[in-house]
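Work package 3, deliverable 3.1, input record:
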Amino acid sequence: MQIDDIPSSTARDLASRIVTPGTAITSDPAYMRGHGTFGENDTIYSSVAGAVERINKLVSVRPLKQRYSGEIGDIVVGRITEVGSKRWRVDVNSRQDGVLLLSSINLPGGIQRRKLESDELQMRTFFAEGDLVFAEVQSFFADGGLSLHTRSIQYGKLRNGQLVTVFPQLVPRSRSHFHTLPCGVDIVVGVNGYIWVSKHVPAAKVEANSELIYSDRNEHISDSERETIARIANCIHLLNRLYVKITDTSIIFAYEASLPHAVKDLLTKEVATDLAHTVKARLLQQS
Amino acid sequence: MSRQELLSPEGLRVDGRRANELRRISCRASVLSSADGSAYYEQGNTKVLVAVYGPREPRAKAQFNHDEAIVNVEFNVAPFSTSERRKRSKGDKRLLEISSFVKQTFEGAIQRSVYPRSQIDIYIHLLQHDGGTLETCINAATLALVDAGVAMADYVCACTAGSIDDTPVLDLNGVEESSIETPDLTVAILPRTGNIALLQMESKLHTSKLEDVMDLAVEGCKHIHKKLDDAVLNAANDLASKLGR
């Protein structure tokens, strides 16, 4: 393979650039080795199976399938696994659990002050084990661990809905990851592949009653709302199963196409394939 | 005749292969949706299923390592894997031995320093047993690890070879392996450099024969490398075409 032929930008055609572990990529000393590669005797080898990418003189191999690896500013959904001193550990589908520091959360009521010892003692009233949080990646630790923060009115604890897990590769980074769909459902599309589908609660209501940020109680969810949530969740499942990019647009398209079918039939093979093709066609038409 | 004839005068073995022939290999990556990486691998009648989880947060807090990943291997034999139904306990020494061999082999091949403070779990299930357990486990685990996107210096390819009536034979099946006179040697290599990752033998073999037997096994490993590489490329191209659309 000629490394110089690879365009510097991410090209659409992946298949021609696929390498497997142990493949020599280049022995030109002008290149630097990036992720997914290693050097031996002045030659750069691939260490994963994936597509070769080149950015100026930096050569890296991006595996086609991998756990989520964070970047600063990513919006993620995570599950609290452990409450420690001044910190929570959060499972974010990554190589190791992320950390949410007590100092990087908002207090109920949006009061701005230093966190005291009394806050430390009542950390479980904010987040307890098993809670789902909506957070942003703030920074990295030296060992590659993620540090999260929830310092915004829209971040915080998730309730009134259900979690759907998808391939992280299918979720592109975009301007907004929180969407209110026209069918009255809120979705939080975490870049780490965790997606929260919940009943729509107006932001004004949360802002008016700041205690709601850390509430553990669901609001009343009517049967029709439950059905819509289940329908959206199944739509996301089927997009994931058939490798369609998961964005608010593709979810809305899948939802609209799914309306003639009963919710429980959405995941049957015929219906799922059919819907996925419809969504793909519409996405193609749009672009 | 007291014992079964393992090599006929025409040079054919019990299953009709020649001395330097491998069994039929078929394998597929990405067979499980919940695991990070998985593989199904058949070599003759020996069939294994491997699931790889991770790199992920270490489950046991006591044993994690600050500068590299730990590798955890669990090996399981299905009760229906042999002609005689038998349930093995988890603490079976034979199973623990195989899992520790697999673990040692991959600790060398995986670039563990890329994943500090994490754990890579490899779960191996032997579904059908017909000789060459260790080789199939290693080959299947390689495929599953590559599928999971774990950084490795190279594939690890394993193969067995033995010696019947002074003739070196490749890839022993269940009948040949259980015969007492047949020594069997398992070799795992890193095909790019040709370095040996594992060399295991539990029976006696005359030193003069060792070299021939090992050369044959290494030759077998190279064939297996080709097979694995094809399977990885297939899986990668398949996924790339799905994601590219």
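Residues 199 and 222 of chain A are 10 Å apart (CA to CA).
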